[in-house]
Amino acid sequence: MTSHPAIEATGLEKSYGNGNARVRVLRGIDLRVERGTVFALLGPNGAGKTTAVRILATLTTADSGTARVAGYDVVADRRRVRGAISLTGQFAAVDEKQTGEENLRMMARLSGLSRADARRRAAALLDRFGLADAGGRLAVTYSGGMRRRLDLAAGLVGDPQVVFLDEPTTGLDPRSRQELWQVVRDLSARGATVFLTTQYLEEADQLADRIAVVDHGLVVAEGTAEELKNRVAGHRLDLVLTSREAYLRLASRAVHHAPENLTLGLPTDGTSARVRALLDEIDPDGTEVARFALRGATLDDVFLALTGAAPAATGHYQEQDQDQDQDQDQDQDQEPTHV
Amino acid sequence: MSDALASSRTHALTMAGRGIRLSRRNIDAVITAMMLPIMLMLIFVYFFGGAIDTGTEYVTYVVPGVLLLCAGFGSSSTAVSVSEDMKGGIIDRFRSLDIGGAPILAGHVTASVARNVVSTALVLGVALLIGFRPSATPAAALAAAGILFAFIVAISWLSAAIGLLAKSPEAAGGFTFFMMFLPYPSSAFVPIDTMPDWLHGFADHQPVTSVIESLRGLLLGLPVGSAPWVALAWCAGLLALALGLSGVLFRVRTA
Protein backbone atom coordinates (compact mmCIF):
# COMPACT_ATOMS: atom_id res chain seq x y z
CA MET A 1 0.00 0.00 0.00
CA THR A 2 1.18 3.48 -0.80
CA SER A 3 0.90 6.02 1.96
CA HIS A 4 -1.17 8.61 0.15
CA PRO A 5 -3.16 11.04 2.30
CA ALA A 6 -6.90 10.38 2.64
CA ILE A 7 -7.73 13.69 1.01
CA GLU A 8 -5.57 15.99 -1.06
CA ALA A 9 -6.95 19.02 -2.85
CA THR A 10 -5.15 21.75 -4.75
CA GLY A 11 -6.52 25.04 -5.99
CA LEU A 12 -10.21 24.14 -5.91
CA GLU A 13 -12.35 26.85 -7.46
CA LYS A 14 -16.07 26.90 -8.04
CA SER A 15 -18.54 29.59 -9.11
CA TYR A 16 -22.29 29.53 -9.53
CA GLY A 17 -24.47 31.72 -11.69
CA ASN A 18 -23.61 33.96 -14.63
CA GLY A 19 -22.66 37.55 -15.32
CA ASN A 20 -23.23 39.94 -12.45
CA ALA A 21 -24.99 37.25 -10.45
CA ARG A 22 -21.87 35.12 -10.58
CA VAL A 23 -20.80 34.05 -7.10
CA ARG A 24 -17.31 32.69 -6.48
CA VAL A 25 -18.03 30.13 -3.79
CA LEU A 26 -14.53 28.64 -3.69
CA ARG A 27 -11.55 30.80 -4.62
CA GLY A 28 -8.66 28.35 -4.61
CA ILE A 29 -8.71 25.94 -1.69
CA ASP A 30 -5.87 23.58 -0.77
CA LEU A 31 -6.48 20.77 1.69
CA ARG A 32 -4.55 17.80 2.96
CA VAL A 33 -6.00 15.28 5.38
CA GLU A 34 -3.91 12.38 6.69
CA ARG A 35 -5.47 8.95 6.94
CA GLY A 36 -7.24 8.03 10.16
CA THR A 37 -7.52 11.62 11.37
CA VAL A 38 -10.50 13.87 12.01
CA PHE A 39 -10.41 17.07 9.99
CA ALA A 40 -12.78 19.99 10.47
CA LEU A 41 -13.61 22.62 7.91
CA LEU A 42 -14.72 25.51 10.08
CA GLY A 43 -16.46 28.57 8.75
CA PRO A 44 -19.55 30.76 8.84
CA ASN A 45 -22.60 30.13 6.67
CA GLY A 46 -21.85 30.72 3.01
CA ALA A 47 -18.10 30.24 3.38
CA GLY A 48 -18.13 27.41 0.81
CA LYS A 49 -17.96 24.43 3.15
CA THR A 50 -20.75 22.43 1.57
CA THR A 51 -19.46 23.09 -1.94
CA ALA A 52 -16.02 21.82 -0.93
CA VAL A 53 -17.55 18.64 0.50
CA ARG A 54 -19.68 18.07 -2.61
CA ILE A 55 -16.62 18.36 -4.83
CA LEU A 56 -14.60 15.95 -2.69
CA ALA A 57 -17.55 13.53 -2.58
CA THR A 58 -17.80 13.60 -6.44
CA LEU A 59 -21.30 15.11 -6.41
CA THR A 60 -20.22 18.23 -8.20
CA THR A 61 -17.12 19.14 -10.18
CA ALA A 62 -14.74 22.00 -9.53
CA ASP A 63 -14.24 24.69 -12.19
CA SER A 64 -10.52 24.30 -11.68
CA GLY A 65 -8.10 22.55 -9.36
CA THR A 66 -7.68 18.88 -8.57
CA ALA A 67 -8.60 16.63 -5.72
CA ARG A 68 -7.76 13.08 -4.76
CA VAL A 69 -9.73 11.13 -2.18
CA ALA A 70 -8.50 7.75 -0.90
CA GLY A 71 -5.80 8.04 -3.55
CA TYR A 72 -8.20 8.42 -6.50
CA ASP A 73 -8.93 11.46 -8.61
CA VAL A 74 -12.47 12.71 -7.88
CA VAL A 75 -13.22 13.26 -11.56
CA ALA A 76 -11.30 10.62 -13.49
CA ASP A 77 -11.74 7.89 -10.89
CA ARG A 78 -15.14 8.97 -9.62
CA ARG A 79 -16.36 5.39 -9.30
CA ARG A 80 -13.47 4.27 -7.10
CA VAL A 81 -13.84 7.36 -4.94
CA ARG A 82 -17.53 6.63 -4.47
CA GLY A 83 -16.64 3.11 -3.41
CA ALA A 84 -14.38 4.44 -0.67
CA ILE A 85 -16.45 7.25 0.84
CA SER A 86 -19.75 8.09 2.43
CA LEU A 87 -21.49 11.43 2.72
CA THR A 88 -23.98 12.51 5.33
CA GLY A 89 -25.34 15.87 4.32
CA GLN A 90 -27.33 18.58 6.04
CA PHE A 91 -30.61 17.14 4.85
CA ALA A 92 -31.53 13.75 6.20
CA ALA A 93 -31.10 11.15 3.48
CA VAL A 94 -33.43 8.53 4.87
CA ASP A 95 -36.95 7.57 3.85
CA GLU A 96 -39.35 8.64 6.55
CA LYS A 97 -41.86 6.05 5.47
CA GLN A 98 -39.44 3.17 5.90
CA THR A 99 -38.35 1.75 9.22
CA GLY A 100 -34.79 2.28 10.42
CA GLU A 101 -34.04 -1.33 9.64
CA GLU A 102 -35.53 -1.11 6.13
CA ASN A 103 -33.55 2.03 5.39
CA LEU A 104 -30.27 0.39 6.39
CA ARG A 105 -31.06 -2.87 4.61
CA MET A 106 -31.85 -0.94 1.43
CA MET A 107 -28.56 0.97 1.60
CA ALA A 108 -26.67 -2.25 2.29
CA ARG A 109 -28.26 -3.92 -0.75
CA LEU A 110 -27.40 -0.87 -2.85
CA SER A 111 -23.81 -1.12 -1.64
CA GLY A 112 -23.64 -4.60 -3.10
CA LEU A 113 -24.22 -6.79 -0.05
CA SER A 114 -26.24 -10.00 -0.39
CA ARG A 115 -29.68 -10.19 1.21
CA ALA A 116 -28.40 -12.11 4.23
CA ASP A 117 -25.35 -9.89 4.67
CA ALA A 118 -27.50 -6.77 4.35
CA ARG A 119 -29.76 -8.02 7.12
CA ARG A 120 -26.78 -8.69 9.38
CA ARG A 121 -25.17 -5.37 8.56
CA ALA A 122 -28.39 -3.46 9.29
CA ALA A 123 -28.77 -5.19 12.66
CA ALA A 124 -25.13 -4.50 13.59
CA LEU A 125 -25.40 -0.82 12.68
CA LEU A 126 -28.68 -0.34 14.56
CA ASP A 127 -27.03 -1.85 17.57
CA ARG A 128 -23.91 0.29 17.25
CA PHE A 129 -25.89 3.51 16.92
CA GLY A 130 -28.25 2.81 19.80
CA LEU A 131 -31.23 2.27 17.52
CA ALA A 132 -31.78 -1.43 18.08
CA ASP A 133 -35.10 -0.87 19.88
CA ALA A 134 -36.30 1.65 17.31
CA GLY A 135 -35.25 -0.39 14.26
CA GLY A 136 -38.76 -1.61 13.55
CA ARG A 137 -40.37 1.83 13.72
CA LEU A 138 -40.88 4.17 10.77
CA ALA A 139 -38.15 6.82 10.63
CA VAL A 140 -40.84 9.52 10.68
CA THR A 141 -41.38 8.73 14.38
CA TYR A 142 -37.69 9.29 15.25
CA SER A 143 -36.38 12.30 17.15
CA GLY A 144 -33.96 14.65 15.38
CA GLY A 145 -30.96 13.01 17.03
CA MET A 146 -32.12 9.48 16.20
CA ARG A 147 -32.73 10.44 12.61
CA ARG A 148 -29.26 11.95 12.32
CA ARG A 149 -27.75 8.76 13.76
CA LEU A 150 -29.76 6.64 11.34
CA ASP A 151 -28.61 8.89 8.54
CA LEU A 152 -25.01 8.46 9.59
CA ALA A 153 -25.44 4.70 9.95
CA ALA A 154 -26.90 4.56 6.45
CA GLY A 155 -23.71 6.14 5.19
CA LEU A 156 -21.59 3.50 6.86
CA VAL A 157 -23.09 0.31 5.40
CA GLY A 158 -20.29 0.07 2.86
CA ASP A 159 -17.55 0.48 5.49
CA PRO A 160 -16.11 3.65 3.92
CA GLN A 161 -12.48 4.68 4.40
CA VAL A 162 -13.38 8.35 4.30
CA VAL A 163 -16.51 9.71 5.94
CA PHE A 164 -17.79 13.18 5.02
CA LEU A 165 -20.12 14.84 7.51
CA ASP A 166 -21.64 18.12 6.39
CA GLU A 167 -22.70 20.04 9.52
CA PRO A 168 -23.55 16.85 11.40
CA THR A 169 -24.95 18.48 14.53
CA THR A 170 -26.73 21.54 13.16
CA GLY A 171 -30.17 21.72 14.71
CA LEU A 172 -29.58 19.04 17.33
CA ASP A 173 -30.20 19.50 21.03
CA PRO A 174 -27.11 19.45 23.30
CA ARG A 175 -27.55 15.82 24.34
CA SER A 176 -27.96 14.54 20.79
CA ARG A 177 -24.92 16.57 19.83
CA GLN A 178 -22.86 14.87 22.54
CA GLU A 179 -24.05 11.47 21.30
CA LEU A 180 -23.09 12.31 17.75
CA TRP A 181 -19.67 13.51 18.85
CA GLN A 182 -19.14 10.13 20.48
CA VAL A 183 -20.11 8.45 17.21
CA VAL A 184 -17.49 10.51 15.36
CA ARG A 185 -14.83 9.58 17.92
CA ASP A 186 -15.73 5.90 17.57
CA LEU A 187 -15.51 6.16 13.81
CA SER A 188 -12.07 7.64 14.06
CA ALA A 189 -11.00 5.01 16.60
CA ARG A 190 -11.99 2.34 14.08
CA GLY A 191 -9.55 3.82 11.61
CA ALA A 192 -11.81 5.85 9.31
CA THR A 193 -10.82 9.30 8.16
CA VAL A 194 -13.49 11.84 9.09
CA PHE A 195 -13.92 15.12 7.23
CA LEU A 196 -16.53 17.32 8.84
CA THR A 197 -17.78 20.81 8.29
CA THR A 198 -19.07 22.90 11.13
CA GLN A 199 -19.81 26.44 12.13
CA TYR A 200 -19.37 25.57 15.78
CA LEU A 201 -15.92 26.20 17.20
CA GLU A 202 -16.50 23.96 20.16
CA GLU A 203 -17.27 21.10 17.83
CA ALA A 204 -14.05 21.54 15.87
CA ASP A 205 -12.10 21.93 19.09
CA GLN A 206 -13.64 18.77 20.58
CA LEU A 207 -13.33 16.49 17.58
CA ALA A 208 -10.74 17.55 15.09
CA ASP A 209 -7.05 16.71 14.93
CA ARG A 210 -6.66 19.52 12.44
CA ILE A 211 -8.86 22.47 11.57
CA ALA A 212 -9.02 24.62 8.46
CA VAL A 213 -10.84 27.92 8.84
CA VAL A 214 -12.62 28.97 5.63
CA ASP A 215 -14.09 32.32 4.87
CA HIS A 216 -15.44 33.63 1.57
CA GLY A 217 -14.10 30.63 -0.33
CA LEU A 218 -10.55 30.76 1.02
CA VAL A 219 -8.71 28.85 3.73
CA VAL A 220 -7.62 31.64 6.04
CA ALA A 221 -5.84 29.45 8.59
CA GLU A 222 -4.99 25.82 9.16
CA GLY A 223 -3.54 23.84 12.03
CA THR A 224 -4.39 22.09 15.28
CA ALA A 225 -6.77 23.85 17.63
CA GLU A 226 -3.77 24.67 19.81
CA GLU A 227 -1.76 26.14 16.92
CA LEU A 228 -4.68 28.26 15.82
CA LYS A 229 -5.17 29.61 19.31
CA ASN A 230 -1.46 30.47 19.54
CA ARG A 231 -1.64 32.24 16.22
CA VAL A 232 -3.75 35.09 17.48
CA ALA A 233 -2.01 35.48 20.80
CA GLY A 234 -1.64 33.25 23.76
CA HIS A 235 -3.92 35.27 25.98
CA ARG A 236 -6.55 37.90 26.05
CA LEU A 237 -6.67 40.83 28.40
CA ASP A 238 -10.29 41.70 29.21
CA LEU A 239 -10.69 45.31 30.26
CA VAL A 240 -13.73 46.82 31.92
CA LEU A 241 -13.62 50.48 30.95
CA THR A 242 -14.94 53.45 32.84
CA SER A 243 -16.42 55.40 29.93
CA ARG A 244 -18.07 54.96 26.58
CA GLU A 245 -15.46 57.24 25.01
CA ALA A 246 -12.62 54.99 26.15
CA TYR A 247 -14.54 51.96 24.85
CA LEU A 248 -15.00 53.46 21.39
CA ARG A 249 -11.39 54.65 21.21
CA LEU A 250 -10.01 51.16 21.90
CA ALA A 251 -12.68 49.08 20.16
CA SER A 252 -10.72 48.69 16.92
CA ARG A 253 -7.81 47.00 18.72
CA ALA A 254 -9.96 44.44 20.47
CA VAL A 255 -10.73 40.85 19.50
CA HIS A 256 -13.63 40.63 21.93
CA HIS A 257 -16.37 43.23 22.38
CA ALA A 258 -19.05 43.43 25.06
CA PRO A 259 -20.47 46.97 24.79
CA GLU A 260 -23.26 46.33 27.30
CA ASN A 261 -20.74 46.27 30.16
CA LEU A 262 -18.02 48.33 28.43
CA THR A 263 -15.68 45.35 28.20
CA LEU A 264 -13.03 44.84 25.54
CA GLY A 265 -10.62 41.92 25.08
CA LEU A 266 -7.14 42.77 23.73
CA PRO A 267 -4.62 40.19 22.56
CA THR A 268 -1.44 39.74 24.60
CA ASP A 269 1.13 37.05 25.31
CA GLY A 270 0.23 37.08 29.00
CA THR A 271 3.65 38.03 30.39
CA SER A 272 3.69 40.45 33.28
CA ALA A 273 5.89 42.92 31.39
CA ARG A 274 3.66 43.05 28.32
CA VAL A 275 0.43 43.32 30.30
CA ARG A 276 1.87 46.18 32.34
CA ALA A 277 3.14 47.93 29.22
CA LEU A 278 -0.21 47.51 27.51
CA LEU A 279 -2.10 48.95 30.46
CA ASP A 280 0.29 51.88 30.70
CA GLU A 281 0.00 52.55 27.02
CA ILE A 282 -3.79 52.60 26.79
CA ASP A 283 -4.43 54.16 30.17
CA PRO A 284 -1.47 56.37 31.15
CA ASP A 285 -3.47 58.31 33.76
CA GLY A 286 -4.95 55.22 35.37
CA THR A 287 -8.53 56.44 35.01
CA GLU A 288 -10.02 54.59 32.07
CA VAL A 289 -9.64 50.95 33.07
CA ALA A 290 -11.78 49.95 36.03
CA ARG A 291 -10.85 46.26 36.20
CA PHE A 292 -9.03 43.72 34.09
CA ALA A 293 -8.85 39.95 33.77
CA LEU A 294 -6.36 37.78 31.92
CA ARG A 295 -7.63 34.67 30.15
CA GLY A 296 -6.40 32.14 27.58
CA ALA A 297 -7.53 32.84 24.01
CA THR A 298 -10.42 30.70 22.73
CA LEU A 299 -11.11 29.57 19.21
CA ASP A 300 -13.76 32.29 19.12
CA ASP A 301 -10.99 34.85 19.27
CA VAL A 302 -9.17 33.08 16.47
CA PHE A 303 -12.28 32.94 14.37
CA LEU A 304 -13.02 36.58 14.90
CA ALA A 305 -9.46 37.66 14.24
CA LEU A 306 -9.26 35.61 11.06
CA THR A 307 -12.68 36.12 9.49
CA GLY A 308 -13.92 39.32 11.03
CA ALA A 309 -17.19 37.52 11.66
CA ALA A 310 -18.65 36.41 14.93
CA PRO A 311 -18.91 32.64 15.04
CA ALA A 312 -21.90 30.66 16.16
CA ALA A 313 -21.22 29.55 19.72
CA THR A 314 -22.42 26.02 20.27
CA GLY A 315 -23.75 26.64 23.75
CA HIS A 316 -25.85 29.62 22.72
CA TYR A 317 -27.09 28.91 19.27
CA GLN A 318 -30.47 27.71 20.34
CA GLU A 319 -31.09 30.91 22.24
CA GLN A 320 -29.96 32.87 19.22
CA ASP A 321 -32.33 30.95 17.03
CA GLN A 322 -35.14 31.72 19.39
CA ASP A 323 -34.21 35.38 19.38
CA GLN A 324 -34.33 35.41 15.62
CA ASP A 325 -37.71 33.73 15.67
CA GLN A 326 -38.97 36.34 18.06
CA ASP A 327 -37.61 39.09 15.86
CA GLN A 328 -39.43 37.62 12.91
CA ASP A 329 -42.59 37.35 14.94
CA GLN A 330 -42.32 40.98 15.88
CA ASP A 331 -41.77 41.93 12.28
CA GLN A 332 -44.85 40.04 11.30
CA ASP A 333 -46.81 41.61 14.10
CA GLN A 334 -45.78 45.04 12.97
CA GLU A 335 -46.66 44.51 9.37
CA PRO A 336 -50.40 45.16 9.59
CA THR A 337 -49.79 48.59 11.15
CA HIS A 338 -47.81 49.60 8.05
CA VAL A 339 -50.61 48.62 5.72
CA MET B 1 -19.48 -5.42 -17.95
CA SER B 2 -21.82 -8.22 -16.85
CA ASP B 3 -20.84 -7.29 -13.31
CA ALA B 4 -21.98 -3.74 -13.85
CA LEU B 5 -25.17 -5.06 -15.43
CA ALA B 6 -25.85 -7.36 -12.49
CA SER B 7 -25.30 -4.56 -10.00
CA SER B 8 -27.56 -2.27 -12.03
CA ARG B 9 -30.21 -4.96 -11.86
CA THR B 10 -29.81 -5.30 -8.09
CA HIS B 11 -30.01 -1.52 -7.79
CA ALA B 12 -33.18 -1.36 -9.88
CA LEU B 13 -34.81 -4.23 -7.97
CA THR B 14 -33.90 -2.69 -4.62
CA MET B 15 -35.24 0.67 -5.76
CA ALA B 16 -38.44 -1.00 -6.99
CA GLY B 17 -38.86 -2.67 -3.60
CA ARG B 18 -38.42 0.72 -1.99
CA GLY B 19 -40.96 2.34 -4.30
CA ILE B 20 -43.57 -0.33 -3.63
CA ARG B 21 -42.97 -0.16 0.12
CA LEU B 22 -43.31 3.64 0.09
CA SER B 23 -46.54 3.36 -1.95
CA ARG B 24 -47.93 0.90 0.56
CA ARG B 25 -47.07 3.25 3.42
CA ASN B 26 -48.68 6.10 1.54
CA ILE B 27 -51.89 4.18 1.10
CA ASP B 28 -54.22 7.16 1.58
CA ALA B 29 -52.77 8.89 -1.47
CA VAL B 30 -53.01 5.65 -3.44
CA ILE B 31 -56.65 5.19 -2.44
CA THR B 32 -57.43 8.78 -3.45
CA ALA B 33 -55.85 8.08 -6.82
CA MET B 34 -58.06 5.02 -7.19
CA MET B 35 -61.25 6.69 -5.99
CA LEU B 36 -61.08 9.47 -8.54
CA PRO B 37 -61.49 7.35 -11.68
CA ILE B 38 -64.21 5.30 -9.98
CA MET B 39 -66.12 8.43 -8.99
CA LEU B 40 -65.76 9.78 -12.53
CA MET B 41 -67.04 6.52 -13.95
CA LEU B 42 -70.10 6.59 -11.66
CA ILE B 43 -70.75 10.24 -12.50
CA PHE B 44 -70.53 9.67 -16.22
CA VAL B 45 -72.59 6.48 -16.19
CA TYR B 46 -75.37 7.65 -13.87
CA PHE B 47 -75.47 11.45 -14.32
CA PHE B 48 -74.41 12.17 -17.91
CA GLY B 49 -74.67 8.78 -19.54
CA GLY B 50 -78.42 8.90 -20.08
CA ALA B 51 -78.00 12.02 -22.20
CA ILE B 52 -75.17 10.67 -24.33
CA ASP B 53 -76.02 8.54 -27.34
CA THR B 54 -73.16 6.27 -28.30
CA GLY B 55 -75.17 3.54 -29.98
CA THR B 56 -74.53 1.12 -27.10
CA GLU B 57 -75.12 0.99 -23.36
CA TYR B 58 -73.14 4.00 -22.08
CA VAL B 59 -71.36 1.95 -19.41
CA THR B 60 -70.03 -0.31 -22.16
CA TYR B 61 -68.82 2.70 -24.12
CA VAL B 62 -67.19 4.56 -21.26
CA VAL B 63 -65.30 1.86 -19.30
CA PRO B 64 -62.29 1.66 -21.65
CA GLY B 65 -61.94 5.44 -21.36
CA VAL B 66 -62.11 5.28 -17.58
CA LEU B 67 -59.49 2.51 -17.51
CA LEU B 68 -57.21 4.74 -19.50
CA LEU B 69 -57.90 7.82 -17.39
CA CYS B 70 -57.14 5.74 -14.32
CA ALA B 71 -53.86 4.54 -15.86
CA GLY B 72 -52.77 8.01 -16.97
CA PHE B 73 -53.72 9.63 -13.69
CA GLY B 74 -52.11 6.87 -11.62
CA SER B 75 -48.90 6.89 -13.65
CA SER B 76 -48.49 10.64 -13.51
CA SER B 77 -48.06 10.61 -9.74
CA THR B 78 -44.58 9.21 -10.48
CA ALA B 79 -43.58 12.80 -11.22
CA VAL B 80 -44.27 13.78 -7.61
CA SER B 81 -42.31 10.93 -6.05
CA VAL B 82 -39.32 11.51 -8.34
CA SER B 83 -39.40 15.23 -7.57
CA GLU B 84 -39.50 14.50 -3.83
CA ASP B 85 -36.40 12.35 -4.14
CA MET B 86 -34.57 15.08 -6.03
CA LYS B 87 -35.47 17.65 -3.39
CA GLY B 88 -34.34 15.62 -0.38
CA GLY B 89 -30.84 14.57 0.54
CA ILE B 90 -31.45 11.00 -0.51
CA ILE B 91 -30.48 11.57 -4.12
CA ASP B 92 -26.96 12.55 -3.03
CA ARG B 93 -26.76 9.46 -0.86
CA PHE B 94 -27.76 7.27 -3.82
CA ARG B 95 -25.29 9.00 -6.08
CA SER B 96 -22.46 8.67 -3.57
CA LEU B 97 -23.23 4.93 -3.64
CA ASP B 98 -22.67 5.18 -7.38
CA ILE B 99 -26.26 4.39 -8.31
CA GLY B 100 -27.18 5.81 -11.68
CA GLY B 101 -30.29 7.71 -12.63
CA ALA B 102 -31.72 4.81 -14.62
CA PRO B 103 -32.09 2.35 -11.71
CA ILE B 104 -33.52 5.10 -9.47
CA LEU B 105 -36.15 6.06 -12.03
CA ALA B 106 -36.79 2.43 -12.96
CA GLY B 107 -37.61 1.80 -9.31
CA HIS B 108 -40.24 4.54 -9.37
CA VAL B 109 -41.68 3.29 -12.65
CA THR B 110 -41.92 -0.27 -11.33
CA ALA B 111 -43.75 0.94 -8.24
CA SER B 112 -46.06 2.94 -10.49
CA VAL B 113 -46.83 -0.13 -12.62
CA ALA B 114 -47.56 -2.13 -9.45
CA ARG B 115 -49.94 0.57 -8.19
CA ASN B 116 -51.68 0.71 -11.55
CA VAL B 117 -52.19 -3.05 -11.77
CA VAL B 118 -54.10 -2.83 -8.48
CA SER B 119 -56.10 0.26 -9.40
CA THR B 120 -56.97 -1.07 -12.86
CA ALA B 121 -58.25 -4.29 -11.33
CA LEU B 122 -60.31 -2.26 -8.87
CA VAL B 123 -61.84 -0.04 -11.55
CA LEU B 124 -62.60 -3.07 -13.69
CA GLY B 125 -64.25 -4.77 -10.70
CA VAL B 126 -66.54 -1.78 -10.07
CA ALA B 127 -67.27 -1.56 -13.80
CA LEU B 128 -68.42 -5.19 -13.82
CA LEU B 129 -70.63 -4.48 -10.80
CA ILE B 130 -72.41 -1.61 -12.53
CA GLY B 131 -73.11 -3.56 -15.67
CA PHE B 132 -70.01 -3.53 -17.89
CA ARG B 133 -70.07 -6.75 -19.95
CA PRO B 134 -66.95 -7.29 -22.06
CA SER B 135 -67.17 -9.86 -24.82
CA ALA B 136 -63.47 -10.35 -25.46
CA THR B 137 -61.75 -13.59 -26.41
CA PRO B 138 -58.89 -14.48 -24.02
CA ALA B 139 -56.40 -13.46 -26.70
CA ALA B 140 -58.06 -10.08 -27.21
CA ALA B 141 -58.26 -9.49 -23.47
CA LEU B 142 -54.56 -10.25 -23.20
CA ALA B 143 -53.80 -7.86 -26.05
CA ALA B 144 -55.85 -5.14 -24.34
CA ALA B 145 -53.98 -5.72 -21.09
CA GLY B 146 -50.69 -5.54 -22.99
CA ILE B 147 -51.54 -2.20 -24.58
CA LEU B 148 -52.68 -0.75 -21.27
CA PHE B 149 -49.47 -2.01 -19.71
CA ALA B 150 -47.37 -0.36 -22.42
CA PHE B 151 -49.30 2.88 -21.90
CA ILE B 152 -48.71 2.76 -18.13
CA VAL B 153 -44.97 2.15 -18.56
CA ALA B 154 -44.62 4.95 -21.13
CA ILE B 155 -46.58 7.51 -19.09
CA SER B 156 -44.77 6.52 -15.89
CA TRP B 157 -41.36 7.13 -17.49
CA LEU B 158 -42.61 10.36 -18.98
CA SER B 159 -43.79 11.37 -15.50
CA ALA B 160 -40.39 10.49 -14.08
CA ALA B 161 -38.82 12.85 -16.64
CA ILE B 162 -41.35 15.55 -15.69
CA GLY B 163 -40.45 14.96 -12.05
CA LEU B 164 -36.82 15.72 -12.90
CA LEU B 165 -37.86 18.84 -14.79
CA ALA B 166 -40.12 20.24 -12.05
CA LYS B 167 -38.63 22.62 -9.52
CA SER B 168 -40.75 21.27 -6.66
CA PRO B 169 -43.04 18.31 -5.90
CA GLU B 170 -46.00 20.71 -6.00
CA ALA B 171 -45.12 21.76 -9.54
CA ALA B 172 -44.64 18.11 -10.50
CA GLY B 173 -48.18 17.50 -9.26
CA GLY B 174 -49.42 19.65 -12.12
CA PHE B 175 -48.70 16.82 -14.53
CA THR B 176 -51.40 14.70 -12.89
CA PHE B 177 -53.91 17.37 -13.89
CA PHE B 178 -52.68 17.30 -17.44
CA MET B 179 -53.02 13.53 -17.58
CA MET B 180 -56.45 13.69 -15.97
CA PHE B 181 -57.80 16.04 -18.59
CA LEU B 182 -56.07 14.63 -21.65
CA PRO B 183 -58.74 11.91 -22.12
CA TYR B 184 -61.55 14.50 -22.42
CA PRO B 185 -60.69 15.65 -25.95
CA SER B 186 -60.66 12.03 -27.13
CA SER B 187 -63.20 9.31 -27.62
CA ALA B 188 -63.06 8.42 -23.91
CA PHE B 189 -66.41 9.86 -22.80
CA VAL B 190 -68.20 10.97 -25.98
CA PRO B 191 -67.75 10.08 -29.67
CA ILE B 192 -65.38 12.51 -31.37
CA ASP B 193 -67.80 13.35 -34.21
CA THR B 194 -70.04 15.12 -31.69
CA MET B 195 -67.23 17.61 -30.95
CA PRO B 196 -66.62 20.83 -32.92
CA ASP B 197 -64.77 20.34 -36.20
CA TRP B 198 -61.61 22.17 -35.11
CA LEU B 199 -61.10 19.66 -32.31
CA HIS B 200 -61.32 16.61 -34.58
CA GLY B 201 -57.74 16.84 -35.76
CA PHE B 202 -56.34 16.77 -32.23
CA ALA B 203 -58.90 14.37 -30.76
CA ASP B 204 -58.54 11.86 -33.60
CA HIS B 205 -54.78 11.76 -33.52
CA GLN B 206 -53.72 12.26 -29.91
CA PRO B 207 -52.15 9.19 -28.27
CA VAL B 208 -54.96 8.60 -25.81
CA THR B 209 -57.53 8.05 -28.57
CA SER B 210 -55.67 5.19 -30.23
CA VAL B 211 -55.23 3.46 -26.89
CA ILE B 212 -58.91 3.86 -26.01
CA GLU B 213 -60.07 2.69 -29.44
CA SER B 214 -57.83 -0.38 -29.08
CA LEU B 215 -59.11 -1.20 -25.61
CA ARG B 216 -62.72 -0.66 -26.61
CA GLY B 217 -62.43 -2.74 -29.75
CA LEU B 218 -60.51 -5.57 -28.10
CA LEU B 219 -62.71 -5.73 -24.98
CA LEU B 220 -65.99 -5.58 -26.88
CA GLY B 221 -64.97 -7.85 -29.72
CA LEU B 222 -65.28 -5.13 -32.38
CA PRO B 223 -62.99 -4.65 -35.39
CA VAL B 224 -59.98 -2.55 -34.32
CA GLY B 225 -58.22 -1.86 -37.60
CA SER B 226 -54.78 -0.37 -37.12
CA ALA B 227 -55.55 1.22 -33.72
CA PRO B 228 -53.49 -1.24 -31.60
CA TRP B 229 -50.43 -0.67 -33.77
CA VAL B 230 -50.85 3.07 -33.65
CA ALA B 231 -51.26 2.83 -29.87
CA LEU B 232 -48.13 0.72 -29.48
CA ALA B 233 -46.19 3.07 -31.73
CA TRP B 234 -47.28 6.01 -29.56
CA CYS B 235 -46.25 4.17 -26.39
CA ALA B 236 -42.88 3.21 -27.87
CA GLY B 237 -42.32 6.78 -29.08
CA LEU B 238 -43.28 8.33 -25.75
CA LEU B 239 -41.13 5.82 -23.89
CA ALA B 240 -38.11 6.55 -26.10
CA LEU B 241 -38.66 10.28 -25.61
CA ALA B 242 -39.00 9.83 -21.85
CA LEU B 243 -35.87 7.68 -21.60
CA GLY B 244 -33.78 10.15 -23.57
CA LEU B 245 -35.20 13.16 -21.75
CA SER B 246 -34.81 11.67 -18.28
CA GLY B 247 -31.21 10.66 -19.01
CA VAL B 248 -30.30 14.21 -19.99
CA LEU B 249 -32.34 15.82 -17.20
CA PHE B 250 -30.85 13.59 -14.54
CA ARG B 251 -27.36 14.61 -15.57
CA VAL B 252 -28.32 18.29 -15.65
CA ARG B 253 -30.11 18.19 -12.29
CA THR B 254 -27.26 16.42 -10.53
CA ALA B 255 -24.40 18.34 -12.13
UniProtKB/TrEMBL annotation, chain B:
Residues 28-253 form the ABC transmembrane type-2 domain. Coiled coil: none annotated. The keyword Transmembrane helix applies. InterPro entries: ABC2_TM, ABC2_TM_bact-type, ABC_2_transport, Nod_factor_ABC_transporter. Its main location: membrane. It is found in: Cell membrane; Membrane. GO terms for molecular function: ABC-type transporter activity. GO terms for cellular component: ATP-binding cassette (ABC) transporter complex. It is a multi-pass membrane protein. One of its GO terms (biological process) is response to antibiotic. Keywords: Antibiotic resistance, Cell membrane, Membrane, Transmembrane, Transmembrane helix, Transport. The chain crosses the membrane at residues 27-49, 61-83, 104-130, 142-165, 172-192, 229-250. PANTHER family: NODULATION PROTEIN J (PTHR43229). Belongs to the ABC-2 integral membrane protein family. This is Transport permease protein.
